[in-house]
Amino acid sequence: MRFGDLSLQVVAGAAALGATLLVGLIAWKVADGAWPSVRHYGLKFVWTNAWIPVTGHELYGAASFLFGTAVTSLVALALAAPLSIGIAIYLSELAPRFLRGPVTALIETLAAVPSVVIGLWGILVLGPVLRTHVEPALHSAFGFIPLFGPPSSTGSSIFTAIIVLTFMILPIVSSITRELFLGVPHDQKEGALALGSTHWEMVRGVMFPYARGGIAAALILGLGRALGEAIAVTQVIGGVTGSSGIQWNLFATGDTLASKIAASYQGATTNLQVASLIYLGLILLVFSLFVNFLAQVIVRRVARKQGFGARA
Amino acid sequence: MPKHGTFIRIGLLAAVAAVLATLAAGTAGAAPAKKTGITIAGAGSTFVQPLVQQWIAPVGAAYGYELQYSGVGSGAGVAAITARTVDFGASDAPLTADQFTACKGCVQIPWALSATAIIYNLQGVKNLLHMNGAVLSKIFMGQITQWDDPAIQKLNKGVNLPSVKIATVHRSDNSGTTFNFTDYLSSVSPSWKSQIGNGVAVSWPNGTGQRGSAGVAAGVAQTPGGIGYVDVAYALHNHLSYFAMQNKSGKYATPGLKGILAAASSDQKPDANNALSIVNPPKKFALAYPISTYTYVIVPTSTPKAADIRKFLFWAVTKGQTYGPKLLFQPIPKPVLVVAEKTIKKIGS
Fold first, then answer.
1. Pick from A183, A284, A169, A179: nearest CA to A219
2. Residue A310 lies in a domain
3. Which chain B residues are Cβ-neighbours of A235 within 8 angstroms?
4. B165–A269: do the CB atoms touch at under 8 Å?
5. What is the CATH number for A295?
6. pLDDT tens digits, one per residue of B218-251
7. Are A168 and A244 in contact (CB under 8 A)?
8. Exposed (0-12), middle (13-18) or buried (19+): which is A120, by Cβ within 10 Å?
9. Contact map slice: B 238-277 vs A, CB within 8 A
């Protein structure tokens, strides 16, 4: 073997091995740090709905944060999915040629905005707008649904966090989906149009089935970003109060796993509190790994169904 | 003839070199006068950070020390000094027994004195509304929800309070200001003390959490009817409306230097660990602002830089206090200064 080939194998192999080891090390360190709390609370921690850091009355549990993480991420994904797919269809099929370049670039710039800046925008701009206009309107129109309860007092709420997360997921999903749509073979699209289908029927009948696996993968990627987003969420979500971490009103304050760790880790006063925060991180890690695993299963299933032209 | 691109590349390189040369010349010219090369690094409370920042230049000029301070929060500061990654830690909340044990031979020295202001946002209503502890604790517990509640109206006769919902804002991160505020509420309200307690973070019954004093101030400023708590220097420098708090003598005190000094007179005998509690002082201190607090520096008694740290701390509790008043830090009173100096002498190698 030539020296170049050998060194390529060694370097690339070392990088791959290093990355794998790093994941293992991270998982081990998180489990190790969480151990005092795991030993103290066991699995009960996962469904205990309390977080009392006062010395003498300490009680910690992840339930409200797990609920908040699930609600914010899933609803944000549900909002971002149709929007992103719509953007992708527009940019690949419908937009006039001169618009495509600039609009694509702008949407991808949205992905580059730092989380802190989006969080700041959330507190200063989005929060007040939602509080004064959107939430009261939704509450008066749909107040009979428990989701749209009394509006938030300061603009920091689960709803604001959901909107912020939607804006963070949007560019990822839309750019991947746009690439997928651009890759649909022309002859299939033109065949459908030649057979008399309308533009929408062609999109629905040719482009969606072709890109289905990739869209699912893109959505999972977006969900991964939403699950882990700490800083932007902690600035706009307002924190759990009382013992009402688990409730239906989207306009109430809440908290997520990542946001709680970001807010409370620095300056945590007791060892149990630090270990409990790392336990929250462990739960988030397991949850994310589970979601990723689910994603791989879905993508593989969809890809298998497609056969020809599929991409995992 | 070289291609167009080569000229551009040479031009860019020359520009970068010119910028770097100017920067080098600039920083060389700005070198500090005296440098012994000794760094004194500290970390902790953001409450005391503005004051410590003021000390960097004079300490460098007087002794040649390079003073460094990172405002990472009281808890992180205590963790840092426990791990001996810094030379001193700064904490607003006195150390608990567990923290003293973990720190292994640390002493705590009161080195600054200030207060927490309760800020509010009511359009068209004047600054320095009246408030007392009982009503304030009911507001933060969620029992009083409107600004025109009779309990608040009674304290402010003649003021037209709007019929707006009260929106409480608290700190979502661990904060010495939260410790001071909840210490005060626990002192004035037995139900607060039993249901919620005090600490750098508590389980709040209602309201919104924001990061940092800046977050709380922004939260209150954005929300009509907002109420929150920040360190008094922050409130004053950002021109926020804040309450005049009723103390035990019945008078309404503002969080100025006089009010803080009067509160400090209420407890001039630090306990065995040098902790002092001056919230809600007894009624003979008529001018006292009831939400005042000391803040502490934590140092190990045995450290390699003992002589330098002693010099720095002596300076901090004497000459350093003169930098306090314009930042709303009241110089520590004589009796406490004596105890502080005695403790500083304990630092040896």
1. A169
2. no
3. 210-211, 215
4. no
5. 1.10.3720.10
6. 889 889 999 999 999 888 888 899 999 999 999 9
7. no
8. middle
9. none
